[in-house]
Task: inverse folding
């Protein structure tokens, strides 16, 4: 079993920044991709960013390009999401996900394990 624990969410004013972290533990595969998803009330869960095991391949949703940066530290089994220039429409619960394959993906059904989520609220 794999456990994912997110941290770093909170309340921030528009234009501000937050850094989300997600630590993986348990029986992770030898190489795994990670992703960050978000879900606002009454909306579908969508991928914000994803990163391959090596970190050499990343995916960003159009809404995240130029503002968010995903990174990982495999020695610490941790993935990060640096979010800058936050907007009220970024308000959502952010979920960390792990895929038991080394290459990144943007579909939620391609991920095998999920964290509990962390709330991000951006005030105008």
Result:
């Amino acid at each position: 079993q794999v456990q994912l624990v997110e941290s770093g969410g909170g309340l921030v004013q528009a234009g501000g920044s937050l850094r989300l972290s997600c630590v993986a533990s348990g029986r992770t595969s030898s190489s795994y991709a990670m992703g960050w998803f978000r879900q606002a009330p009454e909306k579908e869960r969508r991928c914000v960013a994803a990163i391959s095991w090596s970190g050499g391949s990343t995916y960003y949703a159009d809404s995240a390009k130029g503002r968010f940066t995903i990174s990982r530290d495999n020695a610490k089994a941790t993935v990060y999401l640096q979010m800058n220039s936050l907007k009220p429409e970024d308000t959502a619960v952010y979920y960390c996900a792990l895929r038991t394959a080394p290459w990144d993906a943007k579909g939620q059904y391609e991920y095998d394990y999920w964290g509990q989520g962390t709330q991000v609220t951006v005030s105008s």
